[in-house]
Each structure stands twice: as C-alpha cells, then as structure tokens.
Design goal:
2 copies of one chain form a homodimer.
Chain A (H helix, E strand, L loop, with lengths): L2 H20 L12 E5 L2 E9 L6 E4 L11 H8 L3 E5 L15 H14 L5 E6 L1 H12 L4 E7 L10 H9 L8 H4 L5 H14 L12 H16 L6 H4 L5 E6 L8 H9 L3 E6 L6 H4 L1 H13 L1
Parallel strand pairs in A: 3-4, 3-5, 5-6, 6-7, 7-8
Antiparallel strand pairs in A: 1-2, 2-4
Helix pairs in contact in A: 2-12, 3-4
C-alpha cells in the first residue's frame, strides 16, 4: 500500500468514527431518553434530540397524541439541522397535571415549559391542535417565537368536522389504527403510506408514553371544538402574527379542511403554503421526505 | 510539511481542479452558446446546459420572452441536477417563422422541437403562457412528458387581466423595466428582488436574443387571451393530465390570478401546490433559492 492511499483510508476511517460518534441515542426519537422539568407546578416530560446549536424547534402535538405519536422520519430529519424538542403538555402522557379544556391554558402551559428550558428564541411546529397553540404563542410572544410551521391545522373560528370524522374512524372495525383513516386518504397509496407511518411511530419499544384516556380526549375535544367554532372577528389572531409561517396541508383534510389553510395563507402577513396531493390530515407524515426538506429550508433561511 | 498533510492538500487541489473543470460555459445560462436545429421547416434556436445524464427539463417561456428572459439563478440551479434546455418557440428571438396566435400551434411547434432533439422522455417547466403549452403537451403526450412544473400560470378558461395589467405596467414612467410591475409586488422587498432578478437576467452581454416586437406581442396576446377566456367544460384538459405536477405561484398574481393555481391543484389528479408570500407573477424568480430546491426535489423523486 502506498502512503497516499494509506492516508486516504486513514481519513476515511476517521470520518467513519466521527459519524458513528454523533449517531448517539439523542439523535433518534425512537431511543431518545425521556427527561423531566418542573414549571408552574407541572412536571413536564420531554425529549431533546439533534444538533446542540441553532434555534431549537419545539413540536406541539395533536389531539390525544403523546411524544410517541410523532413520526421519527419527520422528527429525526428536522433534528439533523437543529435542536428538536418534543414534549407532553399538561396532563398528557408522562406529564403531570390535569389536561386543560381550552387552547389558552394549553398555550400558557407550553410557554411555561419553554421558559423553564431557558430558551430566549424558539421556532414552533404545531400539528393540528398543536397548530392552534402555535398561533396563540406566535401572536402573543413575538420576541420568543421565531418561525412557525402550521401543519394539518386551521384558524380560530375556521370550523371542524372532528366528531363526525372521529366517529367514522373508530367505527372502521377492520382498521387496526384509527390514524389510518384520520391522517390518510382512502387511496391504496395513501393507506400504504399510513401503514409505514404507523410502523415508524411504533418503533420505540422502551419507555413509551402512557396512552391517553377518556379524560384527556374529552378535555382536548372541548378545547378543539370551542376554538374552531368561536368566531375571531376579522381574523385578529392571524393578522397579529408577524413571524414567517410555513403552512403545510393535505389535499383532503377531513377534520379541519384544506380550504382553511388557503384562508390562513391569504390572511397571514408572511406565509408560504404547501399543499400535497392525495393526502389527508397527516400529509407531513405521508410526504415526510419532501416535508423535512421544505421545513429545514424554511427554518434555515 | 509532513506527508499526511501533504496528501490532504494534494487531494484538496485535485478536487479543485475537477470542480473547475465541470464549471464550463455550458453550465451557465449567461454564457451557454446558442445552437440551432431544424424541425417542421422552422430553425429553432436553443441552449443546453447542465448535466449530460438524466431526464431533460424543457423550459417553456412567457409572453414575448426570449431565452434571455429566464433567470440564470433558476436555470443554473436546476441544471446542477439535470440537463436543461431553453429555446425560442416559432417566430420568437432567433427562431425563424411567424409567431402563432394560438396555444395549439405553439404546442405543436414545441413538440416538433423536442422530437427533433431526439428525446423520448422530457420534463417541462412552463411559466405563464409557457404553462398553457405545458398543459396541452402533458395531456396529449403522456408517453413523452414525464413531470410538469406550472409556474405563474392558469388553466384554460381561467380568465386573465392581461391587458389591464400590461397597460398599467407600461404606463409606469419611472420604472426602467415593466417586469418590475408585472412580476413583483409593490412592496420594497419584492421590488428589491425584482431589481436583482433583472440584473441577473441582464448578465449575458454576448449573443443575446433579438427583442420581441409588436408582431410577436400581438400574436401571443391573442393566444393568451383566447385560451384563458375559452371555457373548458368540466376542466377536461386538466383532468386528462395524469403526470405529477408541481404548481408554483405568488400570493398576488395580478395577471392570471393566484386562485387559478388553487383551482388547478384541486382539479389535477396528482399535483403539489406551493404559494409564496408577498409575490406576483414572478414568484419563482423572487424566491429562486427555495423554488430551485423544491423543483429539484420534485423532479428527482
């Protein structure tokens, strides 16, 4: 072996070691340890992963979802370029307290959690119910909240079809997971993407969060239905958001509607809209690769 | 200098040479030589740039635009990942013949040009009037046309405000280039992006295409107005397009409307929609970096 080739192989070996070294447990949602932090009398459970520098991205979860309901393909993909924090809001999963029945209190609690972590500037990804919280935080805390991604969500007073669609989903006796019907369309391609999503979101076997029960579902359903059915005159909330917003939605969201996202795009001061084909509420999971690229590009700007 | 360091520096130098070698004239719209090819009795002028392998992307230009009216930031960015071909359709710039006054003939001529180049499969980027041609080609030639990007465009019968807006743009006495008002909004940020776009599109100084005169403008205006104002019952054309489509549009397109793109998204079988904030007809030039990333991701799938 000549010296030149040896040097190259040595370099390659060094790079491999470095790469293996960074792929620690913290870089995967499936294995990131659950941590706890107290704020406002609540013991919040959370997981951090990804880069140690850059603006942290806080993920705000959907109706009844715990940290384990996020798609690892999405969370790990975002974490390659920034710190990412997933957490359970008050009363959900391994977080203590009683689940609030209104979006205002959920926002207050999320703020207490972010403040407890000591962050001075964070970005938000709010999915569905989490998107309502993201809007309230962005409007009320322009110094703290940088960029906002609103996925599969709507605006205050935008209406909903939650009860009807939930009823249909849970009546699907052949379906092993209601998310197949709530997050994906009936097309074979979307259903296949749904099965792959559920497989990814089931990969964590150790220290999973406790599942949400009826108390959580009832409180959150009330919050969701009241918020989407309480008219916000002239969309004051949306119009008071000055941060850059990326809106992402599926072509056929049966719970919160696709048109709501078009309305948000038209009303917000500075929003980009992305609508995916043949997709329902969970379009960011169905098109996880494209979503991660789009979101990272938006957050990196 | 120790041998290890020397090897690394030698490697770095080798890479630099390789990189410099690939940055040939063919990789930049500003310097790519104009070529000619005959088809259907027309001598078409065109330029090829980018990679030599992969599905070629054919660019279809806007009302009165020549090859020099494309944004080098967009064309060169797309050419990094595929062969890109810009050309002048019949009668425009350095292409011979009489400019047709209807979209059907423009499509026939574009097809003749693509066939003359010998391609069996191409992708299309149609901007504005070029988007109409892209739709006709995609619907009629599913074997030849792979993916389609429709930017700043509309559908047959979608209506237009061309004459009104053109009149306003050309009456702006203080504006050195009507594209500042036709492609960008009145905001300082969009206008600044407009000036940068025009600067980029003016960088080519050698062998520019002849500018379009009144004959071309009259024929193309007729084609554009007739096409957008001739109703297509039940959007038959859009519904017959089966290829994946990426629709990109600005928040405030004053000529062809932003809502037209939402309608196209809803009507097409397999479309992704991207709407950019604070932007007019030329949103792909204003947000060239994000557009190039989005388009390359879409075309690479």
């Amino acid at each position: 072996m000549n010296k030149y080739l040896k040097s190259v192989l040595l370099m390659a070996a060094t790079f491999s070691i470095v790469e293996a070294g960074t792929a620690s447990a913290q870089d995967k949602l499936e294995t990131a340890p659950t941590k706890f932090i107290e704020a406002s009398g609540i013991k919040f459970s959370y997981r951090t992963l990804g880069k140690s520098t850059g603006t942290p991205l806080i993920l705000l979860q959907h109706f009844t979802g715990t940290m384990d309901y996020w798609d690892p393909a999405v969370v790990n993909g975002l974490a390659k370029e920034r710190p990412v924090i997933v957490f359970n809001n008050t009363g959900v999963g391994s977080t203590s307290g009683k689940t609030p029945d209104n979006v205002a209190q959920m926002s207050t609690d999320a703020l207490a959690f972010i403040n407890a972590l000591g962050y001075k500037k964070v970005d938000l990804l709010g999915f569905s119910l989490g998107g309502f919280i993201a809007q309230e935080l962005a409007a009320e805390h322009p110094d703290l909240i940088g960029k906002v991604i609103l996925a599969g969500t709507s605006y205050q007073g935008g209406g909903d079809h939650l009860m009807q669609v939930l009823g249909e989903a849970f009546s699907q006796k052949d379906s092993p997971d209601p998310r197949l019907w709530l997050f994906f369309t009936h097309s074979p391609e979307s259903q296949q993407a749904g099965r792959e999503f559920i497989k990814r979101a089931s990969a964590r076997t150790q220290n999973r969060d406790p599942e949400s029960g009826k108390d959580i579902a009832d409180a959150q359903a009330k919050a969701l239905i009241v918020w989407t059915n309480t008219n916000d005159p002239e969309n004051k909330l949306l119009k008071s958001i000055t941060q850059p917003v990326l809106i992402v939605q599926g072509s056929n969201d049966t719970m919160l509607g696709t048109e709501s996202s078009v309305t948000m795009f038209k009303t917000l001061k500075n929003a980009q809209l992305v609508l995916f084909p043949d997709s329902n509420h969970g379009s960011i999971f169905q098109y996880h690769d494209t979503f991660v690229k789009t979101a990272n590009d938006f957050l990196n700007q």
